[in-house]
Amino acid sequence: MPQIFHPSFNTVSKVTIFGAVFFLAAGGVAVAAFIRSGYATNAGITRDQPVPFSHQQHAGALGIDCRYCHTSVENSPYAGMPPTKTCMNCHQQIWVGSDMLAPVRDSYKSGKSIEWSRVHRVADHVYFDHSVHVAKGVGCTTCHGPVGEMQLIWQHGSLLMEWCLECHRAPEKFVRPRDKVFDLDWKTTGSEQKELGAKLKEEYGLKSMIHCSTCHR
Ligand code: HEC
Ligand code: HEC
Ligand code: HEC
Ligand code: HEC
Ligand code: HEC
How far apart are CA 57 and CA 91, in angstroms? Predict the structure, then answer.
């Protein structure tokens, strides 16, 4: 019998099939990695803003409380954005000639609000509420990272479902006393957190909240 196929064909086809399978698997891994990367989740990326407002300057160095500008963070789902008037409380007196502040002065004169580019946004089918987290002792920096060191704000966590669930399974690993929620420098060691978390779990009646309807209503 003459051989129709060269004996090496089998090897070639195996390699090809293996190659295709491997390629698909690698592709899948790459897609999964992409979904979790900053490109897709926006984590770690800053946005251009109409005014280069710096949290490092205002919240970090000057120590202005978050609530001075994000006034509804304790009692509503939304933290809220400061109106131009809030900036002018100070900038009518200081840095009045600054070029960087020209859009702020224009906005104050025209009454047209400054349009900040949004950095964080959870998917539409997800319910999020700041006030609950503040009331239960979850600090701003726990979710938003080192805000006091940020010139422009970037998104610290992925905001993916697993990011929420990691804390919702065992919130005692992450909570702090309520009066430290706005503290930019709050830190605990592992063993301190273990002790504190157990105490606050009792005190604040913390539950693990992983039912779908907690966040999908
Ligand atoms: C003097 C006013 C002021 C203070 C104080 C302030 N912020 Fe802001 N914050 C702003 C402004 C203006 C923006 C919009 C521009 C930007 O995103 O940087 C903003 C944006 C943010 C954002 C991003 C919002 C988005 O678009 O997703 C976060 C998070 C935030 N602030 C957290 C904090 C925290 C935490 C504190 C306290 C440690 C704080 N801010 C204190 C004025 C302030
Ligand atoms: C409580 C007072 C206060 C408030 C409120 C405030 N700022 Fe400032 N801001 C300052 C001070 C003080 C400086 C100078 C800081 C420095 O030089 O380190 C400054 C600096 C700046 C600068 C840099 C100016 C330059 O030319 O270098 C910008 C831009 C700015 N602020 C924007 C804003 C905006 C926008 C708001 C409102 C969301 C705001 N600030 C609210 C006190 C304030
Ligand atoms: C449990 C995590 C978590 C904590 C704690 C938290 N945030 Fe947020 N923050 C988020 C998420 C998620 C969003 C996006 C919400 C959305 O898209 O509706 C957000 C959005 C924001 C925004 C944009 C405006 C808005 O309300 O959507 C600001 C400003 C902000 N946070 C400030 C703060 C401040 C100040 C604190 C501390 C008091 C704080 N956050 C604590 C998760 C958190
Ligand atoms: C670092 C911890 C932490 C992270 C991250 C976190 N949460 Fe929470 N969340 C809590 C705690 C603590 C509570 C209050 C639990 C309790 O009442 O026992 C809570 C409560 C809630 C509630 C209120 C449920 C109710 O009906 O009272 C909602 C809604 C919620 N979280 C949504 C989210 C979403 C959506 C995300 C992610 C975008 C998120 N959370 C991320 C800690 C966290
Ligand atoms: C603590 C809040 C939280 C809880 C509890 C939760 N989810 Fe989600 N879920 C989210 C967030 C945040 C997203 C958005 C992720 C994104 O933007 O990609 C999401 C997205 C989803 C999606 C869209 C696909 C995806 O992964 O983005 C599905 C489907 C989903 N959730 C199903 C569920 C089911 C089923 C449960 C209950 C077993 C559940 N979720 C519980 C926060 C939650």
Answer: 14
